[in-house]
Design a protein that fits this description.
- This protein is α/β, with parallel strands linked by helices and about 190 residues long.
- The chain has six helices and six strands; from the N terminus they run βββαβααβααβα.
- It has helices at about 40-50, 60-75, 90-100, 110-115, 125-130, 160-185; strands at about 5-15, 15-25, 25-30, 50-55, 110, 145.
- A four-stranded mixed beta sheet has the order 3-2-1-4, sandwiched between helices. It has a two-stranded parallel sheet with strand order 5-6.
- Its EC number is 2.1.1.63.
Length: about 190
Amino acid sequence: MEEKKTVYWTHFVYDDWKMLLAATEKGLCYIGSPNDPVHVLENWIQKNIPNYRLIESELEMDMYSKQLKEYFSGTRTNFTMPLMLEHATPFRQTVWSVLQKIPFGKTVTYTEIAALIQRPQAIRAVGKAIGANPLLIVIPCHRVIGKDGGLRGYRAGLKMKKALLEIEASHKAVSRRRLVEKSIGDSR
């Protein structure tokens, strides 16, 4: 009999958002939409990581929570945590890999993502792969917008997508201001 895989989980709270985080020994595998009940995580894991046992553990999830806290506080613009994405199709993994290369505070279109993976006609498939992204924020699908510059679908809702883009824009502005202040201070 195959040994059960352990999936650790915890709640991550930012402002009014309470998100479920889950990871295996290989890395973070899931970030839930704000205020989702635990059964949403259980259903996702049952579908994607068969033969598992779910254990709540803030300690095991600390590294992931810390990096998310740093992101929301504006001190982290990219993530260095291990990710577990082996459950995904090769196409989804390719799309998600491109998403991880979108710079903090920048946006790209679905059309641009399709071109980057050399599948310019696969815009709908790209959109579907982006919609299936299990790692909100860390794989920054919120940075993908419509060709006309408008916000398009987001698993956690357009309100959260807009808020994440605003958070990144405000932290980027603060970083630029600090750079200017430092440069002025260095020239004195």
